[in-house]
Amino acid sequence: MAISERQRELTALLDKAARAYEQEDREIMSNFEYDRLYDELKALEEESGTVLTNSPTAHAGYEVLSELPKYKHENPCLSLDKTKDPAALADWLGEKEGILSWKMDGLTVVLTYDDGELLRAVTRGNGEIGEVITNNARVFKNVPQKIPYKGELVIRGEAVIKYSDFEKINASISNPDEQYKNPRNLCSGTVRQLNNEITAKRNVHFFVFSLFSAETDGEFIREDFKFREEGFEFLEHLGFTVVERERVNAANVVETVKKFQEKVSGNDFPSDGLVLLFDDIEYGKSLGRTSKFPRDAIAFKWQDETAETVLKEIEWSASRTGLINPVAIFEPVELEGTTVSRASVHNVSVAEDLELGIGDRITVFKANMIIPQIADNLTRSGNMNIPDRCPVCGEKTEVVNANGVKTLYCTNPECSAKKIKSFSHFVSRDAMNIEGLSEATLEKFIAKGFVHEFADLFALDRFKSEIVEMDGFGEKSFVNLMNSVNKASRVNIASFIYALGIPNVGLSTARLICSHFNDDWEKIISSGSEELAAIAGIGQVIAEAFTDFMQSEKNRRVIDNCLKHIELEKSAETVASGISGKSFVITGSVEHFSGRSELKQYIEQRGGKVLSAVSANTDYLINNDVTSNSSKNKKAKELEIPIISEEDFLKMAEEN
């Protein structure tokens, strides 16, 4: 049969979606929609007998696009065939036993050890060629740097970022447009960082799902493993974290799938299904493989629970950068044990593809059983109105088409939605530290016209009569707020610079700049990018961002207005001590300080330096649990770096 236009259309669409997901860490359609269209394409290919070159059914991945070195896998990293029918797993097993485990939703990585040392870490890439990320794998939270095994060991696993860490990272990003969409995208970008200091901060975990090869005559290994479970137990003995698993057969696999499914909502790690492997290694090998799939394993993807409901409205949510995202509001429905009534539609393109309109009957589901999304629009009225005015400021909007994806923006540079996040950052603890000004309160003050720029926060007493009558406020709340404002009117220069929200300039960077110029404000604001870039830890990008900001007439006016109300203080002078010139890494809980940030400040005031990760440049690791088996402790021991308690540290600091 001749190839149809629908097959060509689906091939091109899914190829585009896969490239966006795998190369650019962005999504142009939901997993639900991708799987539905993939199955449709596969059926059309079987009917026509033709598979186009760029069909996602014909290859395992896409060429990697980064500056990381490339490495050709000795054995291809194939993807898995899949099913959503638990009964199909029983048929697939037949009379054999299998190992059922989580299908982690992260980035597949291949680790190679040689004589007990981590030799190489490579991403799956396109299945044939991956990216070398050895430097990053060394700072994964739970990857052993050395193992008691002499010979070559090759394992495969999934690098993931847990939900708890993902939420903390997003919570630290004040701009919602810059927040990460999901743990998988964050992990993909993190694992492929060129600077492994960033990787170390994001708590990447590694879960082994395959012992690929082990060649040695050492005492800890046998070359005659008959079953995968033996290999998994061996890897656990070596110190690896192996994915949770259950031995199953045709009689109990369906029930075991249900047990796994019941755990999903309580998991701290992202998972998009399960994987079933034949436990008998030789039997699995004897089955061979197709051009894309091995025949000794199969993936089970959750049969997403969907519910039909009615779309009540499209809410357009504005943010600091002016991006306005559509959010679907629908009649509440029960999904996976909870009630949901809203779902992000991501952007204008997705909304148009779904042909959304008020009153449409839609089906919704939870991606990976967690995140509400629209599965389909059953009536497709297409009567959605894209607002030509910003829902916050009422000024004109503009649809921007970038790389085929349409997004809506507010064109008003003075939009209050853009201001709220900037003000929230300005008053935050590490910046001006003005307590009592939540985003909700700031939004009210901006809406009422009490504040237009940062300096207005120091003149809120002009509106005392109006503020004390506001919901949630009163005389006492107002007095507390003004006390906090008055306290903030004396601030060290580094905190003020950080508060201004200069792109890429965090608190530590601001401190480096202030230290270089000895807190001379005039020299700081008139500095050139070349001089700034020469400061260790700054670099050209940050230097140019700083000078561009300071040279802007508008920004200088904002700064000058602030300086009418505040007094800049120099940082505390460095105190001579026994830790001057030494580098420290802090881990674990602290007892003599309110938190690690206070301990860090204590060290810096005494001429020391605080690093984020243990390396050859570290002089001491501070950890009150000196005997801990944490990754930092292990790294310090490997590098023969002293691990000291706070008590030891304080004694050292008191020495002159």
Structural notes for this entry:
It contains 24 helices and 24 strands. It is α+β, with helices and mostly antiparallel strands and 656 residues long. The protein has six domains: 44 residues, no CATH class; 232 residues, 2-Layer Sandwich (D-amino Acid Aminotransferase, Chain A, domain 1); 104 residues, Beta Barrel (OB fold (Dihydrolipoamide Acetyltransferase, E2P)); 73 residues, 5' to 3' exonuclease, C-terminal subdomain (DNA polymerase, domain 1, Orthogonal Bundle); 78 residues, 5' to 3' exonuclease, C-terminal subdomain (DNA polymerase, domain 1); 72 residues, 3-Layer(aba) Sandwich (Rossmann fold), CATH 3.40.50.10190. The radius of gyration is 28 Å and the shape is globular. The relative contact order is 0.07.
Beta-strand residue percentage: 15-25%
Structural class: alpha+beta
Low-confidence stretches: 62-66, 217-223
* Helix proportion range: 25-40%
CATH homology group of the largest domain: DNA ligase/mRNA capping enzyme
Number of structural domains? 6
**Continuous helix count:** 24
Q: Overall 3D geometry?
A: globular
CATH architecture of the largest domain: 2-Layer Sandwich
Radius of gyration: 28 Å
